[in-house]
Amino acid sequence: MNPGFFGHQQHRNSYPCTPDSALTNQGSGLVKGPARSKRQRRSTWEGPATSGVALGSQGLSPQQLRQQASLTVQRGDYASAIALLSSLVSQNLASAIDYNNRGLMYFQSGEYEKALADYNHAIELDSQLSQAYNNRGNCYAALGLRVEATLDYDMAIDLNPFNVRALINQGITLREMEIYELAIENFEIALGLGQIEGHIFAERGRTYHVMGEWNAAIADYRRALEFLPESTTSSAEASTRLRSLVKNWIHELIGSSDTDPHS
Questions:
Q1: Tens-digit pLDDT profile for residues 153-196
Q2: φ/ψ of residue 94, rounded to 5
Q3: Cα(52)–Cα(62) distance, integer angstroms
Q4: Alpha-carbon gap, residue 156 to 186, rounded angstroms
Q5: Which of 196, 206, 187 is nearest to 236 (CA)?
Q6: What distance in Å separates the CA atoms of residue 67 and residue 65, rounded to the nearest whole number?
Q7: TPR repeats span which residues (predicted)?
Q8: Rounded distance, CA 74 to CA 53, Å?
Q9: β-sheet bridge partners, residue 85
Q10: What interhelical angle do 130-142 and 164-176 show, nearest 10?
Q11: What is d(CA 103, CA 97) in angstroms, rounded to the nearest whole number?
Q12: How far apart are CA 67 and CA 78, in angstroms?
């Protein structure tokens, strides 16, 4: 399974973590980690819970609570997810994973200060938790603290060179800082990991786009469309939204919506 149980919202989000015994690190131990330039760097539960959640969570094991939390997230019920994770946290105050996951739910709910507090606490409990640094980087980016964000993405990547989402998020942040060459470098390293290529081609293409390298941008956009699904299933929702964005970006460049041979 993926290192977490929630979906990936466009790029500035990361899957929450599950206990190490319940996950398989993507690529871990299989291939050598990618080389990185030193210049490189860049989302259970508290809140207004319903009575049904409070009753349904009684007597459940931590694993069952996490499974129930996952279901509430799939329904977009972040308040109930926060309530469930808060129950987990109260059972084990030393669980960095649960603080990280609750922080992601606060982030999804737009409660950035609460998210930041949970990420900070998760990192205090486990300074090696790569996903917590990536998630905190997303929170810093949302607050406009881009330098802090890039430093957290750096830490996430140093701890886990296969953290493709941290590489993408850092590339997006570098692009926003107009540090385009380093952004491109991030996306190229991410492509070497062989994961979510559609997202990476889309973001590298967008970087070429804002740089004025329009031929390179269109080439990457077309590659992105080969990978991004047209399906509207919940598991592909972020990819489907990105596909629509890519088609709009192509239209910006050449004024035609007929460039996608798969549409």
A1: 999 999 999 999 999 999 999 999 999 999 999 999 999 999 99
A2: -100, 15
A3: 18
A4: 13
A5: 196
A6: 5
A7: 96-129, 130-163, 198-231
A8: 15
A9: 45
A10: 20
A11: 10
A12: 14
